[in-house]
Amino acid sequence: MHAGPASDRDTICAIATPPGRGGVGIIRISGSKALAIASQLSSVTNITPRTAHFSSLNTSRGELIDTGLLLFFANPASFTGEDVIELQTHGSPIVLNRLLAEICYLGGRLAEPGEFSKRAFLNNKLDLVQAEAISDLINANTETAAKNAQNSLQGAFSNHVNGLLTKIISLRVLVEAAIDFPEEEIDFISELDVRSQLLAIIKETENTLHQANQGQIIQEGLAVALVGAPNAGKSSLLNQLCGLDKAIVTDIPGTTRDILETIVNIKGVPVTFIDTAGLRVTDDIIEQAGIQRAVDTLNRAQLVLFLMDASATSQQSVSLYSLLPPNLAEACLAHPFIGVSNKIDLLNGPMPYIQEATTNVSIAAKLGLNIEELKQAIIDAMGLHPESEHLFSARQRHISALQATLNALQNGFDQLQDHAASELLAEDLRLAQLTINSITGEFTNEDLLGEIFSSFCIGK
What we know:
Layout: E1 12-15, E2 22-30, H1 34-41, E3 53-58, E4 64-73, E5 84-91, H2 93-105, E6 109-110, H3 115-122, H4 128-139, H5 143-153, H6 156-179, H7 185-191, H8 194-220, E7 222-228, H9 234-242, E8 260-266, E9 269-275, H10 285-300, E10 303-309, E11 317-318, H11 326-333, E12 337-342, E13 353-354, E14 359-362, H12 371-381, H13 396-419, H14 422-440, H15 446-453
Parallel strand pairs: 1-6, 7-9, 7-10, 10-12, 11-13, 12-14
Antiparallel strand pairs: 1-2, 2-5, 3-4, 4-5, 8-9
């Protein structure tokens, strides 16, 4: 039985299939003792790599636990880069747990969350982006998110990052070479066209950051707040979007007092719609609390849909500030903002629109009129192109690192442009290199690795 603190040199084991009963259950073992443990468990006398062996699996006392398939992947040609054994048995929790207990008795230990993927990273089988993509693929909520995660796993994001890194290093070498010859520095910088090269790198970094932002939204979802005056039709729209009667719909203003949320797949993007209490001045204490919660919701939304009753106004051009107090209007306008004129089936006058909106859409929520146009407007307002074959999954740490890289590059360009300060440019290029290296894990501290892999499934 393994004892003592966990080590990367331990032989680890875990159930790789979901909890519960199933036709098949899978256990993985990775480490230097994996083959020896399998040999003691199994009735197979000659375990051949990459061959499926049918075998009985027994305790060290000779008691049969189960029969199943045994596969051996010899290092370094395995997922973790270590010797890996995979046992495929009947999917009984009792059987799987008995096997785990026996493996630990023979010298293994239970794996920590994400430890198999962490070992693949440490053994240079994957970079950090690809390791994270495994978790993103498992947790994908839409087909598009799964495709993007697969792109990252195959190296699409890493290739972008490594391409940028190569260009940053090359430019840094040129700039530092110029610094070594101060009497020729200005001519050297000019002849090598450092400004143009730097601008090209900045542009490429901006494009990669834009793609990463899209990848994060498609992977993690988009939060959209439905706000507006009472009885504007927010609940009807929510029901239309999610295809079921989730929200209470009445003609009584102020019906919605709690926050209602539902997730809708729009063109491959998981969109969480948050239906809030109607925003108005009221003396009702409970309704006031609902309105305050609606205001709080705006702080975590990425996009706002403001609904107004088109049939209740005779104006064509309407200012949001005429519909809401200034502080609430500004809270809405702090985000990409879609003005939605609802109940156009009851409209007698001109089609109204909100002056400050990024875009305006006219609908009849109860009838389902123009709902598809509204969905497309949501995608367009965020600059998303989920149909693109070249997107990849991304996380907030990637976006933060790309933004820091971009800031360093832009600061270096300013130093060169305004002060001809190549020494400061060289320092900014060094910082850009460090921050972009953190994405793939070239320079990553152990605490960050622990945080990343702790969110993975056990057995992956």
